[in-house]
Structure formats: structure tokens, C-alpha cells
Amino acid sequence: MSTTAPETWSPRGILDLEPNAWRALRRIQSSCVVAGPGAGKSEFLAQRASYLLETGICRAPHRILAISFKSDAAENLAARVRQRCAPDQARRFVSLTFDAFTKNLLDRFMPAIPTDWRPSRRYEVTFSARRQFENFLDRTRLAAPMKWQAEIAGLTQTAFELRILGTLRLPTRAVVPANGIGFAIQHWWREHLRQGATSSLTFTMINRLAELLLRATPQIGRALRATYPFVFVDEFQDTTYAQYDFLLSAFGSPEVSITAVGDDKQRIMAWAGARPDSFRKFESDFQAERIPLLFNFRSSEGLVRIQHVVARALDSGSIPAVAKAESKVDGDVAQVWRCPSEGIEAACIANWISQDIARRNTTVRDYAILVRQTADRFEDQLKAPFSSVGLRVRNESRSLGRTTLQDLLVEELTTIGIALLRLGNKRRAPSAWKVASTAILQICGVDVDDDVACDRAEKRLVEFLREIRSFMRSNPPDEFVAQNLVSQILEFLSPAALARTYLEYSTGESLEIAIEAFRLHLSHCSKYAANWSMCLDRFEGIGEIPLMTVHKSKGLEYDTVFFVGLDDKMWWSHSAGNPEGIATFFVALSRARQRAIFTFCEVRGARQKVADLYQLLTNAGVPEIYIRSSVAPD
Fold this sequence. Notes:
It is globular, with a radius of gyration of 26 Å. The chain starts with 18 loop residues before the first helix and ends in an 8-residue tail after the last strand. 50% of the residues lie in helices and 13% in strands. By secondary structure, it is α/β, with parallel strands linked by helices. Strands 13-16-12-17-18-11-19 form a seven-stranded parallel β-sheet.
């Protein structure tokens, strides 16, 4: 395919980029792109991928590797590149989560792991719970020499797994421990690798094994760098010690250009081990240039001004963003609602959203309800008041087997499965046909230029759709029928073919987890649906207002955001000036395009711990309104 000269290349799908974005896009060496809320970092990365692929700077067969922290962010970025590049170019853009990438390396090259550390071929991915860790600590302390027992007793789960295991580079051969921490590390690995026929590994352990693999077998690292001369890392502020060390080991070479994108002011994953100095370390270790993006394309000018007040509490040198979004509301762009009871709080939110939809002709998906934690609790509280005004709340943080609803919806299996069901329910569904037909060609390994093979694959798809269309027409939604449909789809697609086609399903249990969740969710939706259209709408959340934690809202945006529960009970771990707490608050505020409303319920908790957050809103001129009834304020 012909290439475009770098000097004549222009953005795809948008008119232009801000000056600093152009500078970062054209830079060949590593760069640290500081992108605040609304800066369009996903769009910037998609445009940079297009630039590198279309100009031939990243020439075939070389690829671009994009690493994200959440599967929905990884899929969103891949979809953007597919929209902007020719298929043969888009196929050279590989978008994965950190965990998926390291796990894939481990699974592919397991025999190259040194014997002392090699897990069983089939292993379980585990998440260590607090009680399990405490039991491990007790066993280890009692087994240790007396002189080390106090040191072991002082370990905590977070510090041990994220700061100790996560920063340790495994030696090629196990060594005799020299202190209590070394003894605990040895026992941890021994129990997880050798206790029972099947090893059990956390993602931190998988990361450490993948890093060891690259040192133990240098040719694998060389092949990796030759394959991916360009690497993107999204949400870089959330990089853990283990992930950063892996990045350094895998791609810490002048032959690789890394584009790290993120914002320290949105670092809300310290509890999960995010290192506080990731940007500073990256600039030093990779000789990267720091380039700030200054435009905010999401929020209106009034919200950007409020955001800057909070941003300065995190970084006194924060540069004000330039608002590029049009203001579409009159009156206050932010308010605090003080409610006397949870019932009045829920009813007032429901009534306000219902009236705002009617007044401004918006849709239910323009609104979101964010909480600090325990979304399940708030779902129960909000369900009845919202139902009374004809609205439904959807808990996007709800667990489905071993994943969550939000993660299920971005799975390749889900995208293809829902497209097939849409076509089974309704003959004319152009977007669903495009998804399904493209997927079938990929799964069958058909070259798009091979007309005969394409025709054969399309006929196979049409025949399958004829079968499930007849089945769906004859069987209204219920749990048994939903399970039957999933089985038919899996038989048609073939799990083995899905594993061959999609990298994230090629190893481990990712496909099994997605199948389990798909079955659970479709069965759940079928119980409350009068017909298949309603069932599939519920599956995708059409016509429902999303409820989620702030952590799950990262990367998303809505016209109006309600942040419910700004009180000491919901913010029990916050203390005045705590950077992570302020960053969480900042992330919630910055999801809004037009309006942000914070609610405080007097009976749920006090607001002494969060007084500094209320003071920031006061400093920004945000008014507080006392709600006396379910009548929504103007």
C-alpha cells in the first residue's frame, strides 16, 4: 500500500489538532504527554497511530503496541484506529491491557521460564483476599526462624504484594533467604507454584514471571522490540511498580519509542500500587520529552474553571486548560444538594433528570450517577424512585461471574454475539451486519480480496442467521431460551476459532470468563423482557442511566454527572489534603460536559473528613442548595 509523506499527512476524522498535540504526534523519540480531562488523549493516540502507519514510519511488518489498564479502554482505542486506517494497517495496531500482554507472554513462552519459577502449564489466575493473606502470614511467621518472625508479622497485604513482590526482579535460580521478607517471598512463591497440581498466580506474579522471561531469554526481548518499535501506554499515572519495571525491561532501549499519556491529577489507583513518581521516572529512564496538552474539548468554560480550582489543590503549578466545548445550559454549572434523607435524595435526582430530559431533549445516556464505592447499595436505593418517573438505573459495576458488566460489554465475544442476536431478531440491522460479517471473515481467516472465500463465509453467516431467526421468532425470551441461544452462537463461532483469532482469548481463561458472563447477563435480561428487542436493549443498557464507581468512570463522559454520597461514611478513608481523595473528586467532576451535581445526605454521614472537598467547591463559587422535598430545584 502507498504511504503518505509525513509533511502532507492530515488528521483523520477531525479537522485539526492543538499545536502541542502536533508536536507530540510527530516526535519519533519517546515522549511524556500530559493530557488533562477532556484533552482527547484517546483521539490523540488514534491520530498518532494513523500518522505512524500511513506515513510508513512504522513500516510493515512492524506493529504498534498500545497498553491500557482497562479492557474497555483498550477496545475503544483499537476501534478508533480501525475507523481511521485501512484494514491492513489497522491489523498492525495491537491494543491490550497490561495484564493481558504479560499473561500472553508467559503462556506463549512458558518453557523458557527458569525451572525454579516455572508454573504448571495450566494455572489459575487468583486474586488474594485479605483473609487468605492473613492466613498465609500466620503460617509463614510460625515457619520462620524466631529472629525473623516480628519482621514478617509487620507485613501488610498491599505493601507485600505491590511494593515488595512488585518491585522484586526474580533471580534465575531461587536463593536462600537472608531476612524475614526474603523468607516470606520464598514461601509465597512456593505455595502458589507448587502447592497442588495447579499453580495459582496473581497478576503481579504473572508480571514478575514475564519480566524474568525477558532477562532469562534475551532473544525473546529482542524479538519483542523488533516487532513493536512504537509503544503507547495510556493512563500512565496508574502504572504500578511491577508494570513500570516490566516496561523498562521490555522496551527500555533507544530502538523503541514510547508515548506515555496520562495526568498525575487523575492518579486514583495508589491503593492498587500506582507509583507516585511514574512520570518523573519515565522522563529520566527513557529520555522522554514532557509535552502538555492544553485544550479541554469536553467540559464547558464554567466547569473548566471549577476543575482548575481543584487541579491547583493537587498541583499548585497547574496550567489552566482552554475550554473548547460550547456551553448549553443556563444557570449554575455545578451545585451541592443537601438532602434530609436518602429517600428525598433519590427522588429529587430522579425527578430532576426526568424534567431535564423533557426540557432539553437529551437522552437517558447523557446522565450518569457516580459513587465512591458500593454501587450495589445505591442501586437498591435509587431503583424505585427512578421507576416511578419511567426511568431505569443500571449498575455498570455489577459483578457477572469473574468480571463486571462494564468489562463484559467491550469483549469481542459480546460485540459479535449481540450483533448476531440483533440480526436474528431483526432482518435489517446495517451496523450489526457490518460487525458480524467482518468478524466471520476474520474468524474464518478469509482474505478480503478473495471473492470466492468471502462469498462462502457470507453464505454460512446467512444460513446461521436464518436458523436463529426462526428460533427467536418461535421462542420468546426466558432464561432457558437465552442459554440455548448462547450455545447456538458458540457452536457457530467456535471457541477454538475465537481463541485463534483474538489475542486476548488465545491463552488462559479470558474466553471462559467472557462466555460465563455473557450467559449470565443474557439470562438476567431475558427474565424481564416482553420481546427480544427489549431483552437486547437491556443487555446493552439502551434507555438506562448508568450507575458506577468513580474508578469505573475513568475515560467516560456525560452531559450531567451526579456524584452521590459526598460524606464521611462513603469517604471513610479520606483525610484533609489527601492527594488520592482529591484526585478521585477531580475525576468525578471532570466526567461532566455541562453540569456536575454533588449530593450530601444528612442521615448518611457527617462531612468533617471531606470538609476540604466542600471548601474547594466553595472557593470555586459552587452554591449549596437545601433540598426540603422531592421537588427538583431549578
